[in-house]
Design brief:
The complex is a heterodimer. Chain A is built from seven helices and 14 strands. By secondary structure, chain A is of the alpha+beta class. Chain A has one domain: Creatine Amidinohydrolase, CATH 3.90.230.10. The longest helix of chain A is centred in the N-terminal third of the chain and has 24 residues. Chain B is an alpha/beta fold. Chain B has two domains: 300 residues, Alpha/Beta hydrolase fold, catalytic domain (Rossmann fold), CATH 3.40.50; 270 residues, NAD(P)-binding Rossmann-like Domain (Rossmann fold), CATH 3.40.50.720. The chains are: A alpha+beta, B alpha/beta. At the A-B interface, α3 and α4 of A face α14 and α15 of B. Chain A: GO terms for molecular function: aminopeptidase activity. Chain A: Keywords: Aminopeptidase, Hydrolase, Protease. Chain A: This is Aminopeptidase P family protein. Chain A: InterPro entries: Creatinase/aminopeptidase-like, Pept_M24, Peptidase_M24B.
Chain lengths: 281, 598
């Protein structure tokens, strides 16, 4: 497995698949209407991407509607899988998809709401501060666990709950990599086996070297950012409404702060939205 | 007192003749505004509405009239058969035609006024003459008839209990059917003693009773017996099958009504599809005991219906419909320590129920944030106030400002608190002062400043004090904090006893380990700055691992106010510690000696 992905052409490959994934999310979100179930929304994403050549997944697409966007009452991981919950007017939704295309992995999250909701708008706007905070602290080379806690504190100050804590290991981010394309690409519990294998071998190696491919609140994340691509997914919740974004952060070994970490792409729906609102100022 | 003897200041009286009798009708406010007709019950006259009418007259054209045989209206001859709901409907239409010939009116009825009101809004001949109806403590006799029939036809134990419960509450209805005796009682000893009885039963402040009940009470009550005799048996035996309301209805249910069960309204949505429910902790005479809240709800409902009528669209229903929304909609809730943790979550929970929020904190930015999100969550209005609860002068000033600008607080949540760890010997006098200043004096100042306003207003309310599970459980590492919280618990219990007579509830909330920012603001006595930082991180992580969300405490606060609970432990550890302190205090003392594993 390749780890330090800094090569420009490789980054183009990742950028392309991230674009594809967001295009999928936007296309499916546009087709969401009252009565659509989570399972149908997940299938729509799968089919849309399969038609465009996606054969393998980091994880199969997820869709969460209503208070499931804030993972209300989630106790076991199976609750993340799409259910028969139907979308209703005014409900928030989140689409989370991670296709692998020509060996490049993307993992994106798209939050929206069926119909106008000022509270949902506010949550989305407040998410912008987290994107800036994470980049700033990664450039300062603070330990990932400390950055995790900074995000936590910001969410608390904003009045929200940290909902990425509900993810497996409570991760706010995880590493992604290139994977070799094979004709047969099975998945296990919704995750592509090759991607899982990549994560596992990173975890074994990281365990020896004192780092982890999972960015969590636990002690094993108490190390400075590791060079590579990280899919970062801060997820905040407020009284049964959840919003998140997820996109790739590039971390390099460069000494120049600007070069040491940057978001792979700024031309994404949520970033464009914040630019229009001026929330990034 | 006004010059014309109506007992209501600034009222204009006119006489309306109808069906051989003469009704005394009084009007307040500009006749060009939407008309609100207030209808009294039994044994009352229109003066029961004085306090509400005075609060509404600046915004509405308020009309009151004495029902036939009551107050300054004349009685039909003979009395028997003169009080049927059909004749009362004639009276109502005559009054409406006189005071608002062009526009439909908004009807409000209390007790028998509400019973009449239900008749008016369910019969076809008033269609177009009524725009909305607000019912207080008076069911439709037809709905009541169906209610009994359905429960008697399929009597499950619960349904039977409902019927028997209401049956017991209706003792006076049977008594009023006795010939002659009620009249004699009212004209004799009962009429003389009634004002004092009412004052005692309803906890009316003596000042409120000066102009009420009026001198005509014995006469009113004697005539009014015919309201029951002419209608109750006939309607309960043969309830109309088509008693559907043709206007939007607001139902205000007092939870302490001695004469009417809350269960009576269980199926009301069937009869009144456009129903808004409200509940209020009070007895039967709500227009007298809770005029502020009643007039606020009336004004809100009537304004919304007027706006909808102008636009031709149905009115937006107020936020939510659950028990919390029915109870807290439009009420004023003040929360201290509202910039984070339990305080913030409590503010949001009340906001979601449609309450108006005042978020108070030392942290101005945090309080402003809470107020902003409270508005987005459903509060019709929310304000942020910066104040240090330990500063008596500042709290007094805040109380004066809140009363002047937003009104008297209905629910006060004294939540602000700080933590302090370390043994007694390590804790300095300054540390003690700081923790007692905020945790105990903050509560005292809050209760003194806002509790006094509540008590002086005399219209009930509720005070919630945040204590802690540490109030039950001694500990060698938390002496100052536990002492302050135990004091808050005792203070709450004492205050509860003192204010019980005034309809003000006091609750102490005792949460266990809740994942809030309190640890970040906790001082650990006897440690260096660096050691403190590490300890805070460690304890903070333990709290996060415990992961008990402040939202659950907020739910417990709302429930405590709704049910008027005295002491509310929240989270399993709090319940366990309370049980230990009550039934196994020696075990509690043994636990107190343990060094926490942090």
């Amino acid at each position: 497995m390749a780890t330090a992905v800094t090569d420009a052409t490789e980054l183009d490959g990742f950028r392309e698949v991230q674009h594809l994934a967001y295009a999928c999310a936007e296309a499916v979100a546009a087709r969401l209407a009252p009565g659509v179930t989570e399972r149908e929304a997940a299938r729509m994403q799968r089919e849309w991407l399969r038609e465009r050549g996606v054969r393998d997944w980091f994880h199969l697409p997820f869709a969460w509607f209503g208070d499931r966007t804030a993972f209300t009452g989630f106790r076991v991981p199976t609750q993340f899988f799409p259910t028969g919950r139907r979308l209703e007017p005014g409900m928030p939704f989140i689409l989370d998809l991670a296709p692998v295309h020509r060996g490049f992995t993307a993992d994106v999250g798209y939050a929206g709401c069926l119909g106008p909701d000022p509270l949902h708008d506010r949550l989305m706007t407040d998410l912008a501060a987290h994107r800036a905070l994470i980049l700033r602290e990664v450039r300062e080379r603070r330990p990932l666990r400390a950055i995790y806690e900074s995000v936590d504190r910001l969410m608390t100050r904003q009045g929200y709950a940290n909902r990425h804590r509900a993810y497996p290991f409570g991760v706010i981010a995880h590493k992604v990599d290139r994977i070799r394309e094979r004709r047969w690409s099975p998945s296990l519990f919704g995750f592509g086996t090759r991607s899982l294998g990549g994560l596992a071998s990173d975890a074994v190696r990281g365990h020896r070297e004192g780092w982890s491919p999972l960015w969590s609140p636990h002690r094993f994340s108490d190390h400075p950012p590791r060079a590579g691509l990280w899919a970062v997914e801060p997820h905040l919740g407020f009284r049964g409404k959840g919003v998140k974004f997820e996109e790739l952060l590039v971390v390099t070994d460069s000494r120049d702060p600007e070069e040491s970490a940057f978001w792979l792409d700024d031309d994404l729906p949520h970033v464009r939205r914040w630019q229009e609102e001026g929330a990034l100022a | 007192m006004s010059g014309d003897g109506t007992g209501i200041e600034g009222a204009r009286e006119r006489r309306v003749r109808t069906g051989g009798i003469e009704l005394s009708v009084v009007e307040l406010g500009d006749a060009g505004r939407p008309t609100v007709v207030l209808l009294h019950g039994y044994p009352d006259s229109k003066e029961i509405w004085t306090d509400v009418a005075l609060r509404l007259r600046d915004r509405f054209h308020v009309v009151l009239y004495d029902v036939r045989g009551h107050g300054r209206s004349t009685a039909p001859v003979p009395l028997r058969g003169g009080f049927t709901l059909e004749k009362l409907t004639d009276d109502f239409l005559a009054v409406v035609d006189a005071v608002s010939p062009a526009e439909p009116v908004h009807l409000v009825g209390h007790d028998w006024g509400s019973v009449q009101g239900w008749e008016f809004v369910t019969v076809p001949r008033t269609e177009g003459r009524v725009a909305s109806f607000t019912s207080l403590s008076g069911p439709s006799l037809d709905h009541f008839g169906h209610w009994i029939k359905e429960r008697a036809a399929r009597p499950t134990p619960r349904r039977l209990a409902h019927v028997l419960g209401q049956g017991a509450r209706s003792w006076y209805v049977y008594a009023l059917h006795t010939p002659g005796l009620p009249e004699a009682a009212w004209r004799g000893p009962l009429g003389r003693r009634w004002p004092a009885m009412l004052e005692r039963m309803e906890k009316l402040p003596p000042a409120a009773s000066r102009d009420y009940p009026t001198a005509s009470l014995p006469q009113d009550a004697a005539h009014g017996a015919w309201l029951y005799r002419d209608n109750v048996r006939a309607r309960l035996r043969r309830p109309r099958p088509d008693a559907f309301a043709h206007v939007p209805v607001q139902l205000i249910t007092p939870t302490g009504d001695a004469y009417l069960s809350e269960r009576l309204y269980d199926d009301l949505e069937r009869w009144a599809p456009r129903l808004v429910r409200r509940t209020i902790t009070a007895g039967h005479w709500v227009p007298r005991t809770r005029p502020d809240q009643v007039s606020a709800w009336l004004a809100e409902f009537v304004t919304a219906q007027e706006a909808a009528r102008q636009e031709g669209a149905p009115a937006r229903t107020p936020a939510g419909g659950g028990p919390y929304a029915q109870r807290f909609g439009g009420r004023l809730v003040l929360v201290t320590g509202a910039a984070g943790g339990i305080g913030r979550a409590t503010a949001f929970a009340f906001a979601e129920a449609g309450a108006r929020i005042v978020a108070v904190d030392r942290d101005a930015e945090g309080a402003a944030r809470t107020a902003e999100l409270a508005r987005l969550t459903g509060a019709p209005e929310a304000w942020a106030e910066t104040c240090d609860v330990s500063d008596e002068g500042a709290m007094e000033k805040l109380a004066a400002k809140v009363a002047a600008e937003y009104g008297v607080v209905d629910v006060l949540v004294n939540n602000a608190g700080i933590g302090l760890g370390g043994t007694f010997m390590e804790t300095s006098a300054e540390d003690w002062r700081r923790v007692l200043d905020v945790n105990l004096w903050g509560v005292i100042h809050g209760c003194r400043a806002f509790g006094r306003q509540m008590a002086e207003r005399g219209q009930g309310g509720h005070i919630v004090n945040t204590a802690s599970a540490a109030a039950f459980q001694p500990s060698k590492t938390l002496p100052a904090y536990s002492t302050s919280k135990a004091a808050v618990l005792m203070l709450s219990e004492c205050l509860r006893a003192e204010l019980a007579g005034q309809g003000i509830g006091v609750s102490a909330i005792c949460p266990g380990i809740v994942d809030t920012g309190i640890v970040a603001a906790t001082r650990f006595a006897g440690l260096t700055e660096e050691e403190q930082r590490l300890r805070r991180e460690k304890v903070g992580r333990a709290y996060t691992r415990r992961g008990y969300p402040p939202e659950k405490v907020a739910q417990a606060v709302l429930r405590a106010v709704l049910r008027d609970q005295a002491v509310v432990p929240v989270a399993p550890e709090a319940h366990a510690l309370r049980i230990v302190s009550r039934f196994a205090p020696r075990l509690g003392r043994a636990i107190a000696r343990i060094d926490p594993p942090l």
